[in-house]
Amino acid sequence: MMRALWSAASGMIAQQTNVDTISHNLANVNTTGYKSEITEFKTLLYQNLQTPTTTANGEQKPIPAQVGLGTRVASITSLYNQQGAFQATDSDTAFAIQGKGFFAVNGGDGETYYTRDGNFFFSRNTDGTYNLSDASGHPLLDIDNQPIRFPGTINGNDVKMTEIQVTDDGQFFYIDTDGNAVNLEIQIALYQFNNPSGLEKRSGNLLRQTEASGEPISEAYDTGITISTIHQGYLERSSVQVADEMVNLIIAQRAYELNSKAITTSDTMLEQANNLKR
Predict the structure, then answer these.
(1) How crowded is residue 169: how many other Cβ atoms within 10 Å of its Cβ?
(2) How far, in Å, CA of 238 to CA of 146, rounded?
(3) Minimal CA–CA distance to 18: which of 262, 250, 200?
(4) Contact at 8 Å (CB) between 208 and 144?
(5) What is the domain range of residue 249?
(6) Comparing C-alpha atoms, which of 154, 104, 150, 146 is closest to residue 123?
């Protein structure tokens, strides 16, 4: 019965983490580029209740007599294989990735971070040039790992940011006053990872490279990978399915209640056993 108490308690703790994960998914249902997460579990140690044999001759039993000691959370995995739906916007600096790629931004600490959030903005510098940064001011990086910067003038004319267009592979072109497309020789960097679920999650929709994720694979320079495409004027919505999350929430709640019932039952049995002495 003490095993039952511990096993049920471990189940309640694990299901509480499951509810936390589901709640986090629902809270980020409108977060751009967010990927839904799932909680994965694994069993704990097993105890042998009987010896391996049943006779003096040492004959092996076909089925062991083992009892488990509960469960625990194995991992909380982000499902990066799920593509979020595209939402059209009026912004010329909104980009959605179709594929496995990630944008790269320069963090305030000088480290490179990765994101699927393509909601960027132009900011004017004191020298008249323009940067392309996210809402927190982190500059978007190009294929040479340098912050993307646009000139203030082209052919003696002031650059209008509304005239900048981006191709499917992330190259920037400027439409001048004569209607000609001028190649700015700037390309958005996209990176892939062998194990994107191993990326460390940071606040602000940012992800950090880890040993588990592996080294970033540049789509511009590395071959043998499927290249992603960029869609200007769109943002990738989160991949959270509200209906599925509500079903998962009900299942987690029922599992939590069942484990609490197991604790109550075990406690009642222990109480009855103690009363036998009276």
Answers:
(1) 14
(2) 28
(3) 250
(4) no
(5) 2-80+240-275
(6) 150
